[in-house]
């Protein structure tokens, strides 16, 4: 897990070292264990390293005997098998990131076809004058790109491109509308004009400071598996899960897991406890003294059932106000997902014990867990489109035109994912895998963990797991009003203490309670300049004064937006807690 960046100049001259210094400094938090760079011709590469595999020898860039160089962020879990398949190849390191470089030398741009992992990769190939960028099929690891008269630049975080002076900090109005209404932004375009994400599975080729080709491979299979009996499906599921978790546990440093007590993390706990000779180290967040459901008691029982070492982390109202500016600063590509708050503190606590954390992102998307999927499965005219209403609909808070077009790009994604042969459930799953998963959940996990120098791994988003799960007949995903039916059946056998047939319990952070307890927040938000751009001060003041559970998400979104805007558009570094930051002008 690392940070990477680079630039390919259009004038053929070598990139300025000072520019690479700025890129590297902006990504230092992603790789506190070391850094490296290369300047060759018109290409400059930098990398900041969090050492996970081959701690001493895996420094980057890694360079082959043809002068090709790779910098990478992430983990290639099947690197041992790839090495075995590269018979006769001499390896300079034990790093998991070296096999992709040799695969590129062997297979060209299709080198990613054999990779099983999470990655953002840049390969400088002076033999062809090309730089090739690649991102993993689910978009677990981020990679951003900007083009200008100076050439093409790329980085693990959008803020690095701004910090380097390559792109001016500004807000795209359509992306802002999506953030306000959806809590995340859609498609490849970011909220910063001039910066785009590489799409999940995308490969980009750069020549002479220009993007010359781009291709994105799908993350989900096209076919359906033939109907089989439960015993056969459970056996297949067990095989793919065991293999995925075994691969995701490859590490030269200690690892643990985030345990919520839900289906996905309980499955991981059962597998990790089975596959590890030592007790699993599990971390759970709780919200003492609030109305939010506290997951710690159930997680504690599960940890005891498998002999895991359980670490409970309290997230309090004081944590909310003190950590929120840091969280907003970390979320440069913004996702107003309040789960980023406990994730950030869990990562900070976990860093005291481990450098790698496994978590359950992707289980709902691949196995059909969300309640909204059941609405999408209903026959017409009862079908309920996902995210048909925005957070601010009907509240009269936003200024005229601010939310215009907020659903356009999401609707375009709906149309793209509705391909022949997919059921309504599969279309809904594919929509989430294209936008919600990479642009909300995975951004949240990446930024909150990397801000604390922790690598996050997501075994459910393994290629083999996806091929099996997505292709399941609908009845093995949703049955008797419950999602993830086959996964629940597996868990019922592996860890019955998880009570897998209990209804899904949503994860809630009591941000509404905490905001309502601050009477001065209404005036601070009404006076905030970023908030005034999108909502009239009197409307904002009324929203925060007459606080209610119904309006909690709108208040939280405005608060997050204000602190995000302060850091990433106005360029003011956070000093103090949220209230202190809002009071500063």
Describe the structure.
The chain is of the alpha+beta class. It has 22 helices and 17 strands. It has helices at 17-26, 79-85, 98-107, 158-163, 173-182, 230-248, 263-275, 296-306, 317-330, 340-350, 363-367, 371-377, 408-417, 424-450, 463-470, 485-494, 511-516, 521-527, 529-534, 537-545, 552-568, 578-583; strands at 2-9, 34-40, 43-49, 62-63, 69-76, 117-125, 130-135, 144-148, 151-155, 196-197, 202-207, 210-216, 255-258, 281-286, 309-314, 356-358, 455-457. It has a 6-stranded antiparallel β-sheet with strand order 2-3-1-9-8-10. It has a 6-stranded antiparallel β-sheet with strand order 4-5-6-7-11-12, covered by helices on one side. Helix 6 packs across helix 16 (485-494), helix 7 runs parallel beside helix 8 (296-306) and helix 13 (408-417) packs across helix 14. The model has no long low-confidence stretch (mean pLDDT 95).
Give the topology.
Layout: E1 2-9, H1 17-26, E2 34-40, E3 43-49, E4 62-63, E5 69-76, H2 79-85, H3 98-107, E6 117-125, E7 130-135, E8 144-148, E9 151-155, H4 158-163, H5 173-182, E10 196-197, E11 202-207, E12 210-216, H6 230-248, E13 255-258, H7 263-275, E14 281-286, H8 296-306, E15 309-314, H9 317-330, H10 340-350, E16 356-358, H11 363-367, H12 371-377, H13 408-417, H14 424-450, E17 455-457, H15 463-470, H16 485-494, H17 511-516, H18 521-527, H19 529-534, H20 537-545, H21 552-568, H22 578-583
Parallel strand pairs: 13-14, 13-16, 14-15, 16-17
Antiparallel strand pairs: 1-3, 1-9, 2-3, 4-5, 5-6, 6-7, 7-11, 8-9, 8-10, 11-12
């Amino acid at each position: 897990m690392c940070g990477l960046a680079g630039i390919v100049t259009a004038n053929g001259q070598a990139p300025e070292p000072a520019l690479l210094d700025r890129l590297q400094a902006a990504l230092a938090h992603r790789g506190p264990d070391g850094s490296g760079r290369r300047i060759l011709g018109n290409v400059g590469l930098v990398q900041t390293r969090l050492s996970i595999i081959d701690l001493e020898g895996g420094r980057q860039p890694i360079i082959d005997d043809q002068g090709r160089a790779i910098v990478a962020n992430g983990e290639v879990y099947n690197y041992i098998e790839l090495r075995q398949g590269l018979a006769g190849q001499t390896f300079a390191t034990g790093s998991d990131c070296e096999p992709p470089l040799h695969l590129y030398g062997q297979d060209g741009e299709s080198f990613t076809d054999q990779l099983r992992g999470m990655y953002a990769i840049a390969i400088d190939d002076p033999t062809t004058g090309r730089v090739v960028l690649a991102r993993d099929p689910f978009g677990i690891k981020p990679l951003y790109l900007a083009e200008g008269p100076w050439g093409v630049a790329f980085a693990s975080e959008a803020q690095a491109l701004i910090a380097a002076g390559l792109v001016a900090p500004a807000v795209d109005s359509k992306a802002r509308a999506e953030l306000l209404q959806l809590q995340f932004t859609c498609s490849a375009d970011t909220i910063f004009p001039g910066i785009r994400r590489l799409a999940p599975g995308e490969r980009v080729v750069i020549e002479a400071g220009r993007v010359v080709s781009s291709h994105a491979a799908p993350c989900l299979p096209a076919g359906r598996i033939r109907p089989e009996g439960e015993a056969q499906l459970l056996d297949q599921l067990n095989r793919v899960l065991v293999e995925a978790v075994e691969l995701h546990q490859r590490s030269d440093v200690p690892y643990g897991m985030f345990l919520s007590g839900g289906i996905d993390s309980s499955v991981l706990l059962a597998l990790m406890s089975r596959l590890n000779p030592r007790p699993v180290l599990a971390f759970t967040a709780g919200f003492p003294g609030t109305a939010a459901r506290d997951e710690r008691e159930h997680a504690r029982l599960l940890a005891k059932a498998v002999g895991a070492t359980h670490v409970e982390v309290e997230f309090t109202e004081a944590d909310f106000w003190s950590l929120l500016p840091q969280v907003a600063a970390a979320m440069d590509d913004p996702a107003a997902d309040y789960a980023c708050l406990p994730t950030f503190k869990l990562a900070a606590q976990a860093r005291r014990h481990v450098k790698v954390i496994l978590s359950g992102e992707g289980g709902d998307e691949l196995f059909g867990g969300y309640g909204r999927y059941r609405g999408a499965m209903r026959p017409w005219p009862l079908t309920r489109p996902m995210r048909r209403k925005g957070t601010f609909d009907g509240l009269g808070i936003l200024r005229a035109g601010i939310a215009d077009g907020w659903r356009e790009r999401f609707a375009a994604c709906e149309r793209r994912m509705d391909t022949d042969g997919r059921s309504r459930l599969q279309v809904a799953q594919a929509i989430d895998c294209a936008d919600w998963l990479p642009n909300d959940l995975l951004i949240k996990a990446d930024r909150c963990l990397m801000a604390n120098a922790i690598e996050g791994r997501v075994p459910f988003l393994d290629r083999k797991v996806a091929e099996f799960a997505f292709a399941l007949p609908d009845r093995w995903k949703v049955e008797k009003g419950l999602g993830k039916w086959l996964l629940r059946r597996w868990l019922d056998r592996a860890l019955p203490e998880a009570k897998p047939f209990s209804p899904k319990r949503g994860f809630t952070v009591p941000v509404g309670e905490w905001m309502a307890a601050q009477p001065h927040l209404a005036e601070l938000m009404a006076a905030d300049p970023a908030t005034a751009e999108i909502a009239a001060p009197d409307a904002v003041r009324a929203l925060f004064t007459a606080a209610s559970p119904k309006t909690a998400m709108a208040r939280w979104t405005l608060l997050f937006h204000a602190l995000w805007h302060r850091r990433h558009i106005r360029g003011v570094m956070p000093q103090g807690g949220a209230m202190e930051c809002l009071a500063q002008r």
